[in-house]
Amino acid sequence: MSRPRVLTVAGSDSGGGAGIQADLKTMLALGVHGMSVITAVTAQNSTGVQGAWELPVAAVRAQYRSVVDDIGVDAVKTGMLASAEIVGAVAELIAGTGVPVVVDPVGVSKHGDSLLAVSALDAMRTELLPLATVATPNLDEVAQLTGVHVESEADLRRAAAAVLSYGPRWVLIKGGHLPGEAVDLLTDGTDEFLLRAPRHDNRHTHGTGCTLASAIASELAKGRSVPEAVRAAKDYVTGAIAAGFALGAGIGPVDHGWALGRDPGQD
Length: 267
Fold this sequence. Notes:
35% of the residues lie in helices and 21% in strands. The protein contains eight helices and nine strands. The protein has a nine-stranded mixed sheet with strand order 3-2-1-4-5-6-7-8-9, sandwiched between helices. The chain has a domain at 5-135 and 209-242: 3-Layer(aba) Sandwich (UDP-N-acetylmuramoyl-L-alanine:D-glutamate ligase).
């Protein structure tokens, strides 16, 4: 029996908490077949990013074509793309694939380390975001992309409108950095959903954004609608944050395996 196939196009996290590693763990936990196109290699641990090296565009293209042309794909998720050249190449590849696309416009790491060249922001806005089924920026990435600074829940709608102006079908503004309850806004400019979850007193949240975007892509690959996929993904990530654990001297990862004991299709 075939499984839904999900492709992540992102950077490698040597510490295993975010990036390609988090994406593949999430896909396994949610019952889909995960595949990868590595765009960059990072030296990274619980305290930060010590180095990052982007791969040649030719290597990115070859990985993508190798997987899609033989195995096929039901959804694509993008994460760290590093440079304008890689953003443009990935946008071109995705445009010809014709499946749901989740764009996590990764700009900075959990520790504040830059993961996207300033010169790549324009390519992200004009080439990749218009192809997104769902874009999932956090508040720092909203500010990077649009100049809109979100300081309260009341600002989420303005932030969403600014990101939607670049062309994604839906946007999920992640409000996890706001005080109080963890609230995200999902909207396509017409329909609007405020997704709330209790805030867990746990500092070990490395990989949250990668995990959420990969979970959304996994649920879209199963055939769920965008609102259904995002709700299921937020449920999964909330559990993963609650179960996050200490690792190394800094911020530990969320627990991608917390839900392995339940039916992957369960709400």
